[in-house]
Design brief:
The protein is mainly α. It has helices at residues 17-26, 31-53, 58-71, 73-78, 80-99, 102-109, 112-124, 130-153, 166-192, 198-228, 236-258, 261-273, 279-296, 301-307. Helix 2 (31-53) packs antiparallel against helix 10 (198-228), helix 5 (80-99) runs antiparallel to helix 9 (166-192) and helix 12 (261-273) packs antiparallel against helix 13 (279-296). Bound molecules: cytidine-5'-monophosphate. Cytidine-5'-monophosphate (C5P) is lined by residues 1, 86, 90, 112, 180, 184, 187, 202, 205, 249, 252-253. Residues 1, 86, 90, 112, 180, 184, 187, 202, 205, 249, 252-253 line the site of cytidine-5'-monophosphate. It comes from Mugilogobius chulae.
Length: 312
């Protein structure tokens, strides 16, 4: 979806020299165009996969897309909700990162593990046993420890703390957590509630994402794009970010379709801890692994019969 974290550089006022250097390097790139590019890439990849599934029959592909996107337009409109929320979330994350110390942001953003579980219970009627709730708390704590320790090792934030507004950052991160949980579970509900493939759903999501991205591009950088062109400032690193955003988004969709959002939280936590090995990291890692084990323990028979299924 739209990646607000690279939409606009912070104002130079109140930002220290290191940040000014970063800004100078980023300045040539019109970041809103990269956001659009990531959405377009996602849609094109999905179209290619659908085409391959239809054995390269262009007519069949076009007809089936017309049916699932235009004829069943009510289904398509449903995707506007997560698209808008993800856009909001990605931009709020940028506000949060600019206003909070990095470690505070990293830790508080992990609260999305808990909001995701909460929305899964409320919207998907998932039932979580007490031990699974405890495992999620353990997971949150494990990742938080790892994040704090990692940030502690780095040099202090490049942002001058006088330019940061803690309250604004905190509100932004809390809303991001709520929106991450809600949008993820809403998307999961749509994906699992119909026979349409994950690729068709991503085309629908990407259509809204592209429209919103174009709107943002026109609003923020319209004049510059007209003057310098869409691809102005694209370096190989920018392409890496774009590919990461596009294929990362598709990976999220596949994980949500074949597993669920709660398990996605476990998977991303693993990816956070996997490269670090020392004492505190080992403690965090053991907590995360313990959480995975506890979460996957079979449920008590009474709970299974009353709810008809597990969380995964
Ligand atoms: O932090 P969280 O796990 O909620 O982030 C999910 C990310 O995946 C968001 O940046 C969202 O834009 C992206 N996404 C996507 N395509 C999907 C689902 C999520 O690009 N189908």
């Amino acid at each position: 979806m739209t990646g607000g974290n690279f939409t606009k550089a912070p104002e130079e006022k109140g930002v220290n020299r290191a940040q000014s250097e970063v800004n100078k390097k980023l300045k040539p790139l019109l970041c809103t165009s990269a956001v659009v590019m990531a959405e377009v890439l996602k849609v094109l990849t999905c179209l290619l996969i659908i085409l391959l599934q239809k054995r390269l029959n262009v007519k069949d592909t076009a007809l089936s897309l017309f049916d699932s996107i235009v004829v069943q337009y009510k289904d398509t409109l449903k995707l506007a909700v997560p698209s808008l929320i993800y856009t909001l979330q990605n931009n709020l994350q940028y506000i949060a990162i600019s206003n909070l110390p990095a470690a505070t942001f990293q830790v508080t953003y992990q609260l999305k593990i808990l909001t995701t579980a909460l929305f899964s219970v409320l919207m998907l009627r998932k039932s979580l046993s007490k031990i699974q709730w405890v495992s999620l708390l353990l997971l949150f704590s494990g990742v938080a420890i790892v994040q704090v320790q990692q940030e502690g090792k780095k040099e202090s934030s490049v942002l001058d703390s006088s330019s940061q507004n803690y309250m604004v950052g905190l509100v932004a991160v809390v809303i991001s957590c709520l929106s991450s949980g809600f949008a993820g579970v809403y998307f999961e509900k749509i994906l699992k509630g119909s026979s349409a493939s994950v690729w068709v759903r991503n085309v629908q999501l990407g259509v809204f994402g592209t429209a919103l991205g174009l709107l943002g591009m026109w609003w923020n950088d319209g004049t510059d794009i007209a003057k310098n062109g869409f691809f102005f400032g694209y370096t190989s690193m920018v392409w890496c970010v774009i590919f990461n955003q596009a294929f990362g988004g598709l990976l999220v969709a596949v994980v949500v379709k074949y597993a669920d959002n709660i398990l996605k939280g476990f998977a991303t936590s693993f990816s956070i801890i996997v490269f670090h090995v020392d004492l505190i990291f080992t403690v965090g890692a053991v907590m995360v692994i313990g959480a995975v084990y506890m979460y996957s323990l079979p449920k008590a028979p009474s709970m299974l019969s009353s709810t008809g299924g597990g969380a995964s």
